[in-house]
Amino acid sequence: MDACQDTDTLIALVSSLLPVTGPVPDSAVILDALVQSDGDANTAARIINSERKSTGKTPVKKRKRVGDLDDWLKSSKSTHNDADPKPVASNSKVSSGPAAPGPSKNASPSKLVNLMTVLRQPLPAVPSIPRLPPLTLSNPSLVAQHTPCTLHLSVLPAELACRLFYNMKDASADWQRNKWWLFDKVVESPHRTSFYARSQNGVDGREDWQEAAQYWYNGRKTEPPSVFSDAMEEACNYVEKIVNDEMRKRKRFPLEWGGTGTEGQMWRANVAASNCYEGGKESVGLHSDQLTYLGPYPTIASLSLGTSRVFRLREVVPADEVSTRRARTFNIPLPHNSLTIMHASCQERFKHSIPPQTAIDVYRPLYPPAHDVSNETSYNCRINITFRFYRPDFKPESLPRCKCGIPTILRPDMKHSDKVDKYWWCCYAGAQNDGKGCDYWRCMDMKSEGRGPCINDTL
Ligand SMILES: O=C(O)CCC(=O)C(=O)O
Ligand SMILES: [Fe+2]
């Protein structure tokens, strides 16, 4: 996921721009305003203010505003954040879920100075381009028309989908909340996650992916990843078929993986990451997935089980187009047993999130589970499994190491202003090392780093 942008700072900024007399809006409200304003704090503050003026009240209020930004930062406690760390240095665009207030009570003055410095920066001129309202894409053809994703409904046999839901829900008791450093405090993701390696013919043994699993948890030392359960394996076979059928119909990008599987498949899954969202408040913030092991233009297949939640997509407008058009937010409701394929270019051009929801429909499984639960039981939990192909040419030992001596992460240049795809290797140590990393970054060069084969090598 994108590691260099920081929504917490933006939320603090917006909050500081609101009149001190009113109540402080909920961070989710500020975040929505930031999304609408394309990450511009000034515009976001104006949106909240004009809503206040027109309705006479602040959207959702949690506590009284007590003073200025300094007071607010000093008195705030950590709540939650995105599934990936975002090192400190950013004042640009929105990236995280309903995010948290700033540093903890004992925040060092130097950190506060940094924030205040950000605050004093002149705000960029807002281009007078009409804002686009969010669009709900309620069926597969709308999703395909507007986004680089496809939506597939009822993808698994109904019994398997229920069995996998129970299986993963039980396993989720051991899944973790991701933790990382932000400023001088440790923040925690607002949902639980886990990482699985697929063991097929001994090729993708779990040992190979120990380091990759570790990096799913932001570099924290972990046990070797679990292997796919029987139900995951069964589901994965259906998913691979759908993905390959879909990819055959699509334009391929030059830097996509150009190899094929043992049965000639274009795409297969060798790892999976899972997420569990309990209730409507659990979420993941706007991000794009880290490309470290996926390489450029990955295809990611995301299976939804249980409670239906909205999947939000938002384009990152290239730098040379920001003065002529605005990004649009797309909301896609994802029902039980649906598959969302994030096709090649989605991670480079769009960010995605599962936003918090004030209301959700509970999930009532069609099939009773093997264990003792009645048919009447309902669940407010969503399980997500993202099946991924970790490329052999981006295997852990091939990653450059930064000055801190740890493997770097790969990020796309989402602003791609000169229309040439660029990717950067960046230091990742700050996520775990008391927030302290190094300034290492390097442009990724497929050829000189000996990576491939890519689609352009096979033409
Ligand atoms: O739960 C989802 O559908 C999205 C999860 C996600 O974005 C991720 O695991 O990177
Ligand atoms: Fe993601």
From TrEMBL:
Coiled-coil stretches: none
PROSITE patterns: FE2OG_OXY
Disordered: region residues: 49-108
InterPro entries documented for this protein: AlkB-like, AlkB-like_sf, ALKBH3, Oxoglu/Fe-dep_dioxygenase_dom
Domain of life according to the entry: Eukaryota
Protein's GO biological process: DNA alkylation repair
Basic and acidic residues bias (residue ranges): 66-85
Fe2OG dioxygenase domain residues: 268-391
GO MF, any single term: dioxygenase activity
UniProt protein name: Fe2OG dioxygenase domain-containing protein
